[in-house]
Structures are given as C-alpha cells and as structure tokens.
Amino acid sequence: MMSNPAPPHIVCQKLSKTFKDFWMRDRVKAVDAVDLEVRPGEVFGLLGPNGSGKSTTIKMILGLLHPSSGRVQVLGRSPRDTEAKEQLGYLPEESYLYRFLSARETLEYYGKLFGIDRRTRLNRIDMLLEMVGLDKVQRRPIGEYSKGMQRRIGLAQALINDPKLLVLDEPTTGMDPIGTRQIKDLILRLKESGKTVLLCSHLLGDVEDVTDRCAIMFGGRVRKAGTIDELLARQDETQIVTHALSSEEEEQAVTALESRGLTDVSIRRGRQKLETLFLDMVTQAQAEGVATAGAGNAGTVATFLTERHADAADAKPGSSATVLDDLVQDEPEEPAKREVVVEEVKPQPDAAVLSNLAEDNPRTEPEKAPEPPRSADPPKKPADRSVLDDLL
Ligand SMILES: Nc1ncnc2c1ncn2[C@@H]1O[C@H](COP(=O)(O)OP(=O)(O)OP(=O)(O)O)[C@@H](O)[C@H]1O
C-alpha cells in the first residue's frame, strides 16, 4: 500500500493517562501507552466498550486533559495551541449546549467565539441549520429538543468554523436509523471534501460503514488496529457472489465445486442490511403518503463544508449518495444475489476478539467531567411532537 506523504493530523505516541485519587495515589489507568496516527482526509474510528478509554484519549487529543505521559500532536501542533484549536471541530459525547439558547443563537454564539465575520456567519448558520434538518425549529430553545435533535445541533456547532479536523464522540446517540444514516452520509461527504474525521463510537455498524481505518480499545490499550477490510476479512472463507440461482443451478454449482476437491461448500441467499430494509420501508411509506411522527430529514450538505481543502490527501470523490438522494430517486431494482460460500476452517479470529472484548469487560461507568452550570430543565412539552411532525 502507498504511504501517505502528508503529515498525520493526529499523532499519539505512548499516550497514557492515570487518574489519581484524593491522596494522589494512582486510581485508574484510563489510557495506557496508546499509539495512534490519523492521516489527512481519512475517517478514523475509535472503537471500544464502555470505560475502555476512548473519551479520555479524545480529551487528550483536544487538549482538555493533560497526558500523564507520552506525546500528542494535532495538526502538527500541541493540542493546546490556539491555531490547532481554530481548525478543530468537536462534538462531545454529552451535550453541553446552553438550554435556553435557540439553535440559531447557539450557532451565532459559537460563530462569534471563532471570530467569524457577520456575513459569513449568517450564511453558514442558514446552511448548517438546513443541513441538519433544524431550520424549521431554529428559534426554539435547545432545552426543548429531543436527544436526536440535540445531536444535530451539536454537529452543526462542531462545523461552524469549517474545521479541518472533526472529532465526533458518539455522533449518532439517540438518533433513529434515518437520522443515523444521514449523519453517516454527512461524514462521508465531509471526507470527500477533504476533512479528517475521528469518530469515536461503540456502535460497530456505524464505524464499519464510514471509517477507512479503526482502532479497537480495551482496558486503555489499543488491542487491534487497521483498515476495516484488514480487520474484517475472513482468512478461512471465500465467497463467490452471483445472481439468484434456481435450485437446480445451485445443485450443479455445488457438484461442480465439490468435483474440484472443494469441501464445506454451501449456498445461501444474499442478504441486505437491516438498515437498508428499514430505510426502504420508510421510503415506501412516505411515497404512499402515510403520516407519522418522527425525526426530520436533513437537508443538503452546507456548500462551505464541501469545498475541498487544498491539502486534502487522498480523499476519493463521489462515492456516497445521501439518504435524501435515495429517498427521492427511483433506484433500478438489482436482481437478487446468492452467495456461494466455501468454508475451510471454522475459527473466526476477528469475531472472537470482539466477543471476548464484550464478555470480559466489566462495565465501568466513567466519571463525568463537571457540567457547566445550567438551570433546571424546562418540563417536556407535548409540543415536541408537533416539532417532529413539522420535521417530516
Ligand atoms: N475524571 C476521571 N476521574 C477518574 N476516572 C476517570 C475519569 N474519567 C474517566 N475515568 C475512568 O477512566 C476509564 C476510561 O473512561 P473513558 O470515559 O475514557 O471510557 P470510554 O471508552 O469513553 O467509555 P464510554 O464508552 O462509556 O464513554 C474508566 O474506568 C473511567 O471510570
């Protein structure tokens, strides 16, 4: 594989963080000698069960926590350097947005913090609100938003400065499958425009769908890292994919393969993903004009975000269609596919690693950083439903 000549956007070398107790005794080794490299223009996934050290690693990358030892560099600088911070967008795991500000006021506030001039700011705010599907409810206080809507405004806030590097901590938490797909499409579009994305999640499907490379953490350490293909390829199985076969053709195929000495040949019908089935069902229901209360559709991607950065490395344009595009297009139906699977050995090393991680992990609740002071939550109003109706 060709090595990327551009310097990495994130470098962690032997990065460690130990939390101390009141008596300054080591209490938790949250991150333990982590080596990571995130290259320009790639989507890198940081995976791991609860308490594995993902958020602590991210906080050190953002300069919010001091490493106990090791080194971290962001965009070639210390993460505390303001020039690095100016080019960084961050969506935290928990929403720290001001509950009594509306979506528009929130983006105004962050836009001003970055010193973005008024015209550019207003232009960006309009585009971002449309992009995340909140333009119709932009004047309502964020405290009244649903979880998914709060993620959307959080994402818009992370993009207001048109960052080079975007750090997303659990971006799809609280989102339904449509919102999740939209966020994944957005991440792919941002990558196409040359942005670098560090995506932290324990939703394996999300990471598998959008990342180029990923690292799996457990107990503060990176246990496995590589491209999705490297990590997921089964060395013990070959799949031959063809159009749907009749039962007669299936028998002939098996006989032909077995006559060549292949063993454990099996044929099964190709499967679509549950996500595809779900989105198809929604598209059909929408086409039939079925009314429902649910999350809204996101709009087009803000153009200021999709102008390719000059230093974008090897981002490949044009591969991802948005869900919205899918929803309005009549896709030609592909013929059903069947897979001819030739299995040789049974063990599945990579699946085993993941299941071991899940089994062995004692569920440790991370201690949350103190939240900024905020007033009591306003009572949830039934009006939220009408917001959702509006969105659809
Ligand atoms: N401020 C803190 N003080 C003490 N221990 C902490 C602190 N923050 C995190 N930890 C501990 O460090 C370990 C790693 O936590 P971290 O939040 O990085 O995990 P995570 O992988 O992000 O988990 P999750 O998926 O639940 O968000 C946990 O054992 C957690 O309890």
Describe what is shown at a glance.
The chain is α/β, with parallel strands linked by helices and 392 residues long.
Structure description:
The protein is of the alpha/beta class and 392 residues long. The protein has one domain: P-loop containing nucleotide triphosphate hydrolases (Rossmann fold), CATH 3.40.50.300. Helix content is 35%, strand content 21%. The chain has 14 helices and 12 strands. Strands 5-6-7-3-8-9 form a 6-stranded mixed beta sheet, with helices on both faces. The chain has a 3-stranded antiparallel beta sheet with strand order 2-1-4, with helices on one face. A 3-stranded antiparallel beta sheet has the order 10-12-11, covered by helices on one side. A hairpin with a 2-residue loop joins strand 8 and strand 9. Helix 3 packs across helix 4 and helix 4 runs antiparallel to helix 5. The radius of gyration is 23 Å and the shape is globular. The chain starts with 9 loop residues before the first strand and ends with a helix. The C terminus is likely disordered. Bound molecules: adenosine-5'-triphosphate. The site of adenosine-5'-triphosphate has 16 residues, from strand 2 and helix 1. It holds the Pfam family ABC_tran. This is Putative ABC transporter ATP-binding protein. GO terms for molecular function: ATP binding; ATP hydrolysis activity.
